[in-house]
Amino acid sequence: MDDTPIFQCNGVGKAFFGVKALDNVDIELRRGRVLGLIGENGAGKSTLMNVIGGFFPQDSGEMFLDGKPYRPEGTLAATKAGIGFIHQELNLFPNLAIAENMFIDDFPKRGPLIDRREMARRTTGVLKALGMDFPPWLKVERLMPGERQMVEIARVLASDARIIIFDEPTTSLTAKETEKLFVLIGQLKEEGRAIVYISHILGDVEKLCDDLVILRDGGITAAGRCGEFCVERMVASMIGRDIGSIYPPKTNKPGGEVALSVKNLSQSGIVSNISLDLKKGEILGIFGLMGSGRTELMRMIFGVDDYESGAVTVDRVPIRRSNPRDAIDKGMAFVTENRRDEGFLQSYPIVDNIGLVYMRDFIHPLTRLVDRKRVAGESVRIAGELKIKYASVDRQAVKSLSGGNQQKVALGKWLVKRPKALILDEPTRGIDVGAKYEVYNIINDLAAGGSGVMVVSSELGELMGIADRIVAMNRGEIIQVFARGEFDEEAIMRAAFRIHEDGMRIGSAS
Amino acid sequence: MSAQIEYKTEAGWRRWLRRILASEFFVLYLTIAYVLCLSPWIPYFWSMGNLTDILSNTWPLLVIAVGQTFVLIIGGIDLSQTSVLAFASIVGAALICTSLEPYIFSKCVMWGWIVAEDGGILAHSTAGFVLAIAIMLGCGMFVGLLNGISVAAFRMPAFMVTLVTMMMFSAVALYLAGSENIMHLPDEFVLLGDSYDLVSVPMFIAIGVTILAHILLRRSLFGMQVYAVGVNPMASRISGVPVRRVIILAFVISGLCAAIGSILYTARFEMGRPTLGATMLMDVVGANVIGGVSLSGGKGKILWAVFGVLFFVILANTLNFLNLSFYTIDLVKGVVIFGAATLDVVRGRIAQAS
Fold first, then answer.
1. Is the same domain home to A225 and A193?
2. pTM of the model
C-alpha cells in the first residue's frame, strides 16, 4: 500500500456571516486508514465534511484529490469524484424502495427509461456484500433504524466511493448493529478505501481509528496517530476555554426549599427513572450530548411531551402530564431549544409575543376584553429590563430583530410574572458574545430573586460559569451530579461520555 | 439605507400608488374606483332598487364570510358552510311551516312526526318559533363542532374534513326535504328578511354579528389565541394556549355564522331550500381572500372580509347589468379574482419592502 495521501486539505477556512466556522484546517486521508474526527458540538466537524462533500465551497485554502486540485461544484460532483457521505440523520426516502434510494441521484438507464432490472441486480449485489438479503423493492419505511443505516452505507458503496465519511453513524444503532458496522468498516479498510469517522463516543474512536484530528472552534487543536492519544487527552484537547470575564459574578443563593421536583420520570427509549430537585434560587445546569435525552426530559417536565410514569411538582404542587397550561398556571416557564419554530410568533410584534403567555391577566374584569394598552406597557417594561433593542413594540415583527434580541423576547414573555421554576434549553445558542453575557445576567438575576432556573446546554464552559450544580446525562439517564465546588471539565465530560476512570466506555447501547 | 434614499427620490405619484397598494383599505378603494369607472355605463346602478338589491345580497353573505374568517385565520378552511345553509334552512322551515301539500311531502322522511298537513310541530306558537330558530343555530354549531373535533383532536386536514361534511349535510338536506322546497313560512319568520328600502332586519343582524366578531377577534383573549394558533400552533401550545379548544371554537363560530346566514336567506326567500348556498362556496372564501385574509393562517381582519364581500357583491351585481351570459360572468369573476390575488402578492412584497 503506497503512503501518498489520496486526499488533502490545505489551510481550509470557512465563515458564516462573519463567524469563523473553519480556520486554516489541514487534513490528509490515506488508503486503508481510518481518520477519527472529534470535537464539541459546533467545533466545525460538520462544516469541514460539508465542504469536502460539496455542500458549499470553502472561503480559503485548497483541497487535492489524488494530487489534483479538487473543487466540487455540488454534492453530485463529490459523489462522482468518489466521495461517499453517510449522514448523521438518515438521508433516505422512507416512501421509496431500497433500490430507488440507492440510485436516487443517478438512475441506471436504458435509452430514456429507467432500467429497473439493472437497479435490482446491482442493489442485490451490494446488499449481499453487506450480508443483507432484503428484496430490492422493499420500502425503506419497513426497515429498522440500523437496517436503514446499512442501506445508506450500501448506497455509498453502490456509487463506488473511495473516500467514505461516517458522521455519527452509531447514534441510531443497537450495540449489535454497531459491532456489525465496525466489522464492515474493517472490510472497507482492507479494500483500500479511505475512511473518515466522526463520533462523540471516544471509546469507539480509540478502537477504530488509525489517525486522529481534534477540532475546537473551527481550528485543529491536536492531530496525530490515534495510539498517541488516550481518552483523557482527547477530552482535554476538545474542551479548554477561558472562564472568567465571560460570565457575570454570581449573586444568587440557592435556598433550602425545592422549587421544582422530578420523581422517577420515565419514557421508554428516551429517559429512564429521572429524579432531580431544583432549589429555589438555584441555577441547575443540565449537560449532555445530542441524543442524551436532555431536551426531551425538559419537554416532558413542562408537559409539551407525554411520559409513561413519574411525577413533577412545582413548589410541592403536582403538575398534570402533557398540559403546558397547567405547568404555567403553577408557576413554570419554558424557553425551548428551537426558538424559531417554538419560541415566538415570528411575524407578530413584541407586544403579541410578550402578552401571549399571561394574556389572561390583562383582561378587564367587567368588559372581558384584553387591555392592549396595559399589554403594551408591560412589554415596554420587560423590553427595557432585558435591554431588548427594538424600533417599535407593536409594529415591528419579532423576526426582524437580531438573534440575541429574539431570544430575549422568547424569554421575556415568561417574565410578566416571576416564574417559580424556569427551564431554559440552549438559551445562548446562535447568539453573539455580548447577548450571551446579558442572558447570563438575566438568569443570575432571576435566581437571585428566588426563582429556580434549570439551564440545558451543550456548552460545558457556559454551565460551569453560571450553574450551582451540573447534572451530567447520557442516553436518558443521570450519570452524575456535580456541585459547584467540584466542577472539573474532564470529570463532567467523562460522565457525559460515560467513561470510567480507566478510560473505558460503560453502558453501551442496548 | 439605500432603499430609503430611493424611496424619497421617488416620483410623487409612485409614492402615492405605493401607499394605496400597501393600505389595508386597498380593496375598498378598488371597489370605489370600480364603481366610479362603471357608473357612466350603468346609470341604473345608483337607483334605489339596485342599491337595495346590492345591500340585501350583502348582509347574509357578510355574516357567513365573517364566520369563515375565524377558520381561515387559524389556518383552516370551512367548505361545509354551504351545506349548513341548506341543512339549517330545511330543518328550520320544516319545523315552523304552517302547512304542507300532502301530494308533495307525504313520501318525505319527516312526514308524520315532524311535519304533517298542518305544518311543522313547532308551528303556531311563539315558544316553538324561538325554539326552531335555536335549533337552526344548533344545526350550524353541530356541523362546526364535528369539523372542529375532527381537525383538532384527530388532526385531520380541514380541507378534507369540511369537504366531507359539506357533501354529507348537503345530502342530508336533500334527503330530509325529498328534494323539494318547503314553503308557507309564518309571517313572523319572514319578517327576519324584511326590508324597507335600504334599511332592513338583516342589516341590523349582519352589522351586529360583524361588530361582535370584530371585538371578539381583536379585543378578546380568544381572538388573541386565534391569531397565535394561526401563526404557530406549537409555540402557542408551549405558551399555554389551549390550541384544540381554539380550533374547535373557530369551526363552531363558522358553523354558527353559516346558520345565521341560513336564517336570513330562508326568511328572504320565504322558503326552506335544500339547495340553498350550493353555489356560494367561492363567494364566501373568495371574498375573504380578496379582502386579504391569508389562506395559510395568522393574517386577517373582520374589516377585510367586509371589504371583500362588498367587492364581490358589487362585481356580481354590475356584471348582471352588462347582459352577459352566466358563463361569461363566471369568466370575468375568475379573471378579477386572479387579478386581485396577483395584486395581493404585489402588496405583500411592498409591505415587506417598507
1. yes
2. 0.74
